[in-house]
């Protein structure tokens, strides 16, 4: 997916990469951003389906299920985007139907059926969405987030657009909305230690290495050429094609992979941000944030919204670029997208 470092966030198994130019075995002095054409193409191809979904949601949001008058389209999307949506309606008659005087757009019978199926799927996913929202709040230093931030990342989390009215009130044992510092915030009511397990730890447990001591295996082995190591504090690495690290780089990476660090679910205020363990923990926090999204990616603006709540590094972009084997950055949309390569 996409690596976790996109100013666009990428999906779990996407394989975007930041490449280094090789200089004959020596570690390159300058980092050069190399694109992965296949991954960037994914971002280009998703633009049209996203517009179709946006227009579908707009049509469905009309009161009393009435059609959307084309004359009102500009009020909802603006003058410039109106014409892009008009072209979209014309090119997709299997999804949108135009009729009446004045002309209005509605969904075709097939599109309505698919929308109903989607609603059923979302309903079946509600327990997972609630769990992920609880975990998201547990990652924050005060177990709370501004509702504005939750709304910003809601689509990535899979939350319905009206989650404040249809989801939050159903679970008073987990959530509460309270006014704090002039804004509405979502607070966690119940801390569950069984949820304080990261996706990385879950993967390691499945591989049987989660209880392994960091330095438990002292056998002399060759340095890993792909940066991957067995151990409870290691991240899954996926170097971009063409990146050829030298021995010194791999030895440094091995020390970093074996470095112990606190759980992302512990309060960040307990740790000194200058401590290497705390800096590695920050990578784990970003990794877990992306893992809670549906496609394992966020835009840079969405990730920056957690800067104060999760005490993320001040130079967030540099942190993501530095760990190109874990995250990927792409600029194929208006905002950078940050994506996770692998859990």
What descriptors fit this protein?
single chain; 343 residues; alpha+beta; Arc Repressor Mutant, subunit A; Nucleotidyltransferase, domain 5; three-stranded antiparallel beta sheet; 14 helices; 9 strands
Description:
It is a single chain. The protein has helices spanning 37-45, 47-60, 73-77, 79-91, 109-124, 126-138, 147-157, 163-166, 199-207, 247-258, 276-291, 300-304, 307-310, 316-322, and strands at 68-69, 96-99, 104-107, 144-146, 175-180, 183-188, 297-299, 327-330, 337-340. It has 343 residues and is α+β, with helices and mostly antiparallel strands. The strands form 3 sheets. A 3-stranded antiparallel beta sheet has the order 1-3-2. A 3-stranded antiparallel beta sheet has the order 4-6-5. Strand 5 and strand 6 form a beta hairpin. It starts with 36 loop residues before the first helix and ends with a strand.
Quick rundown:
The protein has helices at residues 37-45, 47-60, 73-77, 79-91, 109-124, 126-138, 147-157, 163-166, 199-207, 247-258, 276-291, 300-304, 307-310, 316-322; strands at 68-69, 96-99, 104-107, 144-146, 175-180, 183-188, 297-299, 327-330, 337-340. The chain is of the alpha+beta class.
